[in-house]
């Protein structure tokens, strides 16, 4: 994601758009910058910089307090988009992840994910595509913000050779200085260097650097992501208040969700109905079941009940959606319901 925390703040508060902002701590309390908007970066402001220094670099800078719960919420929504394409997802942080889509059209998937994140969340993402994790990560940062870079196998060495050695994975400022000190400034300099000297100076890391310089990385994508929710939604071609049409749509969405639950052997406890009105205002209403379920009849009845009794239809709707959450995955312990009225 591009300047994730700052971009979320600019999304939620349009008055902050196109302004230099940072998300971080109070400059009077030794606060530091967590994320700087791209408008702020033009002044040389970056993450981990003391906010008091950032304010000196840009007197009109706006310092926004951290809202971690909100960033986690948006991150979960982004991962739900990822999960529509693959189960092999390895998060690196709230705003970055590897996806293994081997056997699929990776370019088409990358473009679709960018489009969905922009359309559904009004945020931009930079996508990198290649044959391994190192190259994909390198590509993702190559054309930020809102980038899309593909490193094809036939072009790997040509792409790498022209890069500063500091772009290699694991090369921080300290290692980069040490490499510069022995005449290694770009990746092609590293490849020309005597391997024995590199190993003698850097040990095992010397071999790793050479492998990265050759575009080699055998680490698999480790599936560390568990779905926290599943959802379906539909934007109508024409705004509507037709209750029959709305019911038909949520029935279809429940069927699609139940199919996914059965495929993953999942159960859920919470259901949310979301609508967006013709004026683009949006509301959602949530109900919880007494236990975990994947029963289609129960989900359909609950979603219809919420739609009819808890969602106002005084305005026409442009979107309706269903989401289930509180997901129980296979082999997870099921929380028992205790009725204390019947206990002695």
From TrEMBL:
The record marks 5 as: Substrate discrimination. The active site is at residue 96. GO terms for molecular function: damaged DNA binding; DNA-directed DNA polymerase activity; magnesium ion binding. Its main location: cytoplasm. Pfam families: IMS, IMS_C, IMS_HHH. Belongs to the DNA polymerase type-Y family. Binds 2 magnesium ions per subunit. Keywords: Cytoplasm, DNA damage, DNA repair, DNA replication, DNA-binding, DNA-directed DNA polymerase, Magnesium, Metal-binding, Mutator protein, Nucleotidyltransferase, Transferase. This is DNA polymerase IV. It comes from Geosporobacter ferrireducens.
């Amino acid at each position: 994601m591009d300047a994730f925390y700052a971009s979320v703040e600019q999304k939620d508060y349009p008055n902050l758009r196109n302004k230099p902002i940072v998300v971080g701590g109070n400059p009077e309390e030794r606060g530091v910058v967590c994320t700087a908007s791209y408008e702020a970066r033009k002044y040389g402001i970056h993450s981990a910089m003391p906010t008091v220094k950032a304010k000196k670099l840009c007197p009109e800078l706006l310092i926004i307090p951290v809202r971690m719960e909100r960033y986690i919420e948006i991150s979960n929504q982004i991962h739900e988009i990822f999960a529509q394409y693959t189960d092999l997802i390895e998060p690196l942080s709230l705003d970055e992840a590897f996806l293994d889509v081997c056997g699929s059209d990776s370019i088409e998937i990358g473009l679709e994910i960018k489009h969905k994140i922009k359309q559904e969340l009004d945020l931009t993402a930079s996508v990198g595509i290649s044959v391994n994790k190192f190259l994909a990560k390198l590509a993702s940062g190559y054309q930020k913000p809102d980038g899309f870079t593909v490193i094809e196998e036939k072009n790997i060495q040509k792409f790498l050779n022209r890069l500063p050695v500091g772009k290699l994975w694991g090369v921080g400022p300290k290692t980069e200085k040490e490499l510069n000190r022995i005449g290694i400034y770009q990746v092609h300099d590293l490849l020309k260097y005597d391997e024995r000297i590199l190993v003698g100076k850097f040990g095992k890391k010397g071999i790793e650097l050479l492998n990265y310089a050759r575009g080699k990385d055998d680490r698999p994508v480790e599936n560390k992501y568990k779905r926290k929710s599943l959802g379906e939604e539909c934007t109508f071609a024409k705004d509507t208040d037709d209750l029959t049409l709305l019911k038909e749509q949520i029935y279809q969405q429940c069927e699609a969700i139940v199919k996914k639950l059965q495929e993953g052997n999942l159960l859920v406890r919470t259901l949310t109905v979301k609508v967006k009105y013709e004026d683009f205002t949006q509301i959602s209403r949530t109900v919880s079941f007494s236990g975990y379920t994947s029963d289609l009849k129960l989900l359909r009845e609950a979603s219809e009940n919420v739609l009819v009794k808890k969602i106002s239809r005084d305005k026409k709707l442009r979107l309706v959606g269903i989401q289930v959450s509180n997901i129980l995955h296979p082999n997870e312990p099921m929380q028992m319901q205790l009725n204390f009225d019947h206990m002695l």
